[in-house]
């Protein structure tokens, strides 16, 4: 079975739609690692799209904050403004769906899903030392995480941690990772709606576990159109600028 792995969509329906169109027919089931909303201009539209995909899903830190499950005191001023704006835009059915998103980690189809780290859904995992807990303690050999908006991840075999950095070619394209037997993986599909690894294309992954391959995809989309909606909504300029720079 082929799984589409989505994370950190951040209310960017244009990026989500472009991604789904680029890989239509290439996947059978969806996993979502959270942060459907906040930052972008389309929280209701994104939530509707994701809900229709009937995914195995967990919540992200922005989902919690926008739903009022947690406060905004840990967010920087720009993120606080965006979260407050998003709260005002949510339709009742959107708020209800976001509010009931389950806590990770969760496991399905021999894969584990987490938002931040294995032991703390709000912790960022950037370096091998931060990845060790998830690599060793996850109940499955393959674990997907989000939160950092960086595509790639980590591997562990025989006491050695490897860093996985893949760069798909220009256009809608993917770079393939061959999964090796006896190796544990902690993999980040990247962010659909707000990449931060220097590539502004929407990022996600497709896992073909029957053939031991994970495809790390990048898909271009109409960034200018999203920036226009963000400006019209009065969202903070740094967020408008950020999606164009991929930072």
Query: What string gives the helices and strands in order?
Result: EHEHEHHHEEHEEEEEEEHH
Could you say which structural class the secondary elements and strand pairing correspond to? alpha/beta
Q: What does the average pLDDT come to?
A: 97
Determine the number of helices (DSSP H or I, runs of at least 4 residues): 8
How much strand?
15-25%
Structure description:
The chain is of the alpha/beta class and 247 residues long. The protein contains eight helices and twelve strands. The longest helix has 13 residues. It starts with a strand and ends with a helix. The mean pLDDT is 97.
Quick overview of this protein structure:
With 247 residues, this protein is an alpha/beta fold. It contains eight helices and twelve strands.
Q: Keywords for this structure?
A:
8 helices; six-stranded mixed β-sheet; globular; alpha/beta; 247 residues; 32% helix
What layout of secondary structure does this protein have?
Layout: E1 2-6, H1 13-22, E2 29-32, H2 43-52, E3 56-57, H3 61-67, H4 77-89, H5 92-99, E4 106-108, E5 111-113, H6 128-137, E6 142-144, E7 152-157, E8 160-164, E9 173-178, E10 184-188, E11 202-208, E12 213-219, H7 223-233, H8 237-245
Parallel strand pairs: 1-2, 2-3, 5-6, 6-10
Antiparallel strand pairs: 1-11, 4-5, 7-8, 7-10, 9-12, 11-12
């Amino acid at each position: 079975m082929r799984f589409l792995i989505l994370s950190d969509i951040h209310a960017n329906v244009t990026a989500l739609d472009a991604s789904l169109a680029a890989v239509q027919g290439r996947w059978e089931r969806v996993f979502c690692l959270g942060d459907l909303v906040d930052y972008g201009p389309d929280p209701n539209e994104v939530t509707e799209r994701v809900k229709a995909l009937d995914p195995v899903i967990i919540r992200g830190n922005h989902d919690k904050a926008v739903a009022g499950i947690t406060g905004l005191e840990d967010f920087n001023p720009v993120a606080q403004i965006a979260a407050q704006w998003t709260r005002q835009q949510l339709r009742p059915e959107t708020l209800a769906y976001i509010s009931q998103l389950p806590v990770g980690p969760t496991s399905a189809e021999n894969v584990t899903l987490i938002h931040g780290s294995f032991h703390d859904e709000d912790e960022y995992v950037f370096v091998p030392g931060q990845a060790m807990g998830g690599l060793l303690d996850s109940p499955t050999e393959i674990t997907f995480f989000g939160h950092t908006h960086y595509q790639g991840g980590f591997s562990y075999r025989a006491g050695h941690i490897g860093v996985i950095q893949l760069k798909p070619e220009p256009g809608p394209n993917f770079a393939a990772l061959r999964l090796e037997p006896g190796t544990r993986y902690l993999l980040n599909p990247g962010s659909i709606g707000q990449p931060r690894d220097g590539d502004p294309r929407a990022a996600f992954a497709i896992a073909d576990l029957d053939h031991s391959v994970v495809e790390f995809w990048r898909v271009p989309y109409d960034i200018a159109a999203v920036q226009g909606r963000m400006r019209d909504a009065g969202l903070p300029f740094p967020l408008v600028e950020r999606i164009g720079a991929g930072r």
